[in-house]
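User: I'll paste a sequence; please echo it back and then give the predicted structure.

Assistant: Echoing your sequence first, then the prediction.
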Amino acid sequence: MSHGQATEPDPAPQGAGRRRELAHFLILAFGVWPVVAIGVVGGYGFLIWMYQLIAGQPGPPGH
């Protein structure tokens, strides 16, 4: 255990580490997040659809 000595983090990752980081970014950017975004938008649309089935369509009341 060192007292009073702070270790500095390594500079930018080199070689294989940088390649792995890039692969993780690409998987997140083009794989996971588009699926999450489609799921959120689809879920919101489904929620509105179900609400309108129960409460009726928005707008002025019919005569």
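The radius of gyration is 25 Å. Residues 16-55 form the longest helix (40 residues).
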